[in-house]
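User: Hi! I'm working on a homework problem where we have to compare a predicted structure to a textbook description. Could you give me the structure for the chain below?
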Amino acid sequence: MGSDKFVELKGVRYPRITIHWMDIVGDASTVTEEEANTLMCPHCVTEGYLYDVFEHAGERYIRTFATYELGDDPSFGDRNCFPLSVLTKNSKRDVEFALIFMSK
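Assistant: Happy to help. Predicted structure tokens:
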């Protein structure tokens, strides 16, 4: 992975990652059966750096960030947390590869 593919802060390499995920959508309006059948989860894309993967209450999650501050005590911004279950199959695979890179 080239240096343009990660950022290193305090000796930790955070890989750049693009994740595709399915969002939850809701609609409280009253609609016909035909209109109800058109409600779909949107396919979303997030670009940034993989912060970590963790487990909580039996579910795996990932955290990402897109903005960071340099210095002795770096700060992270534009953060997101996703349940791994909403990621597409390919993005789950990409996260696993990124974790291998982080562990080296």
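For your comparison, note the following. The CA atoms of residues 18 and 47 lie 4 Å apart. Residues 3-103 form one domain. Good luck with the assignment!
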